[in-house]
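Record format v2
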Amino acid sequence: MNFSIIIPVFNAERTLKACLTSVTNLDYPADQYEIICVDNGSTDVSIKIIQSFKKVRLILEHNRQSSYAARNAGIQVADGKLLAFTDADCIVCADWLLQLEQAFEDPSVGGVAGQILPAEPKTFIERYQVSRRVLNLETMPFPFKGFPVTANAAYRSEIFTEIGLFHEQLMSCGDFELGQRIKNHSKYKIKVQLDIAVLHHHRISLPAMIGQYTRYGIGRKHIDELKIFPKPLSYPCRNPWLYGSLYFFKYLWSSARILLSPFFKGPRLREISFLCLDFLTELTMRIAYACAPKIEPFNPKN
Amino acid sequence: MPDLDHIPITSTVLDRTALKGAPRTSVIVLTYHFAGRLLKPMLLKLLNEQTGPADYEVILVDNNETLDITSFVTDLPLRYIKTEKNSGVSIGRNIGAQHARGDILIFIDDDAVPHQDFIVSHLNAYANPYIFGVRGRSFPKNKTTLNRFATHYDLGTAQKPFTINTEFNCSFRKAIFQEAGGFLHNPVMYHEGIDLSCRISRHYQAFDHLVYDPNPIVYHNYAENFSEFVKKKFYNEFNYRFLYQTYPDCVAYMDKFKSGQSPAAEPLTRWTQLKMKCLDHLATGLAKRELKKATV
């Protein structure tokens, strides 16, 4: 077995069928890859959808509520030499595994990060996230740039035996934490391949997006507590006052552009509401960072 | 958005077409405030001197003409629609389209003179099912200084994708025209063809459904006299401003055709190419799954 594709599933009936259809029809010898879906306690019809695909192996992980716990459960039963990760809200392209295999021809490569592009937006919130290029590897902010996101990533299976599994207690940024461990504690390196793409359905509603950013904030706090990155993630600079004033000027410039927009082309109302959403997401993340509970200890090597 | 079904003007209809059964084509002539002296020969040209099959009807929409034209119109084999009040060219054409029975609508103005192959060559273009609308070639009736401004009338001898910017010589498939909602009810006239083309190409995500065709020929003066020319230029600018403020994407669409050349298809960006690859894969996978279900 060459590849194991691991997909954690939690209440994803909206996008799961498209995901599994694209994953089961890859241009790759069918006996050379397996698909493992890990159900993380879904309460909707996700399990029925998974069972309707005969090629997909279903595993239940109902004890621990965490996408990284689900992925770890998948890793433990996987037979493949290479482990490819995607999410239930993604659509992969036909030569996904072929391209990943090519990237792994170099023996020093331990992990491959692929590009994540937005699917066609249908709601306002989706359109906002598409305009802000969420999860796009090329426009990722500084500390996360160059690290794989589990929506489109692949690792050698030796890595997990060598430096341990995903950190299960993390709410988000678990992929970043694993990437840092690969970089610092293993002989392998991470390769970024921007032409391996996956389509990702962003969050469709405001509560879902707020929840997402809350998890981002808590995850960053936990990363800081674990001292994984030398600088704190919430203020990745030495002088927080300077950083804050930079933000102030950024918003000032955006609002000035909107107020002046009658003199230029461009829809005005949409820009204003996007700016409000910018404020909201930033605020959510900061509040979540400030109020996050202490992380419980976990040894990823066990 | 204009709506063909809710035109608030009642009108009287007089049907004297000799045709039995549904015609294939409807030619819609709009008239308002034009001397009946030229209207009658123009209608006779449409009715009697056209080559090709005769399965077309002529609809004369009278936008409440001040002169009395009923005397000679009632003798001609056409459908005559008289509106209760004049409410602009767009609504007049939309009323004509509403009463039309053909699958293809050809629009012509009262001051234009059609060539003898006018209707046939419009129809020939629709042999290609990909084509939804045709803009014909036009020539000024005589060589005057004012007619030199009509640079967009004649665009060469080759068919090419173009916006439909001559409403006095254009045609649409009726289904497409009605789906798009007809011409926009402008406060002043001009640009209504461009606005309609913009909506059609935005809906179908391609601008090459609408073409310029050199074969349908019409003789039409840009402006008859100087005052009309000034009025035309003034209305044009006024309407451009109106469009710019209310429909900015229509203006962006119009600017692509400014030089008289049809724009090249924009190359796909790398991200779009990758996206298309994923979506194609998903579509084939879903089709395979459906097939399997059907066979089982």
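Chain B touches chain A at residues 248, 252, 270-271, 274-275, 277-282, 284-286, 288-289 (CB under 8 Å).
Chain B has a mean pLDDT of 83.
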